[in-house]
Amino acid sequence: MSRIAASPLLSIAIAYDMKAAALGGCILFGFTDWLDGYLANKLNQKTVLGAFLDPMADKIMIGALTVGLVAKGLLPVPLACVIIGRDVFLIAASFAMRAIERPAGSAFFDTTDSATFRIVPSDLSKLNTGVQFTLLSATLSHFAFGLPSLESLDPLWWITATTTISSGLMYLDGSGRATITKTVTEKVKEKVGPRVAEQVKNVAQRAAVVEQKVKDVLSKTSAGHKD
């Protein structure tokens, strides 16, 4: 929550040339982001709410810093569009998926283990977040001290664009999306017994296979019409 609250303040610091404050804030909150994740893994304190808020805080902070630096002419506009566009797309897609899969009667923002799915950052997505924070910190260092030069940051612009686009594409094929099945399966077993639960699981697997076949047929049909 602190990163979310601090994001607009960092943009204001950049706008009013509070250079040291902007750089220090970026480094501080980048470090706390890493520390939060480390402690959550180390102490096994992961929650559905935390899994939602942590990447959301990253996106808001990265977006705020990106907008501020673009306004100062320190980041190219196309790169900013890639960074912010990816995050806007992922947030919109997650809301759409929740709307489609939300069980009847459940809250839209379900922060319990009954949630239908969660977004699990891939290794590439984590790397991308690190690369983006590195770029923003280096750019803020140039803003504050004139080092490194913007010319030396040019390769990092391309690396950031590549990791941003690649990590975003991973979510399109579902590799970044994890369905929460363990809790649901346990609840089904409690209600109907393990045998029926296994049958339900088999039916769901067959339905997934049929769904994929239908998609394949529709894809081939569409391709045929285009030809």
Task: State the helix count.
Answer: 8
Q: Tell how many strands the DSSP assignment holds.
A: 2
Proportion in helices? over 70%
Mean pLDDT, all residues: 77
Report on the biggest sheet: 2 strands, antiparallel
Order of helices and strands: HHHHEHHEHH
Q: Rough shape? A: globular
Write out the strand line-up for the largest beta sheet, numbering strands in chain order: 1-2
SS-based class = mainly alpha
Distance between the termini: 52 Å
Strand content: under 5%
Radius of gyration, in angstroms, nearest whole number: 21 Å
- The low-confidence runs, each spanning 5 or more residues with pLDDT under 50, are 180-185
How is the secondary structure organized here?
Layout: H1 2-15, H2 19-42, H3 48-71, H4 77-101, E1 117-119, H5 123-145, H6 154-170, E2 177-179, H7 182-192, H8 194-226
Antiparallel strand pairs: 1-2
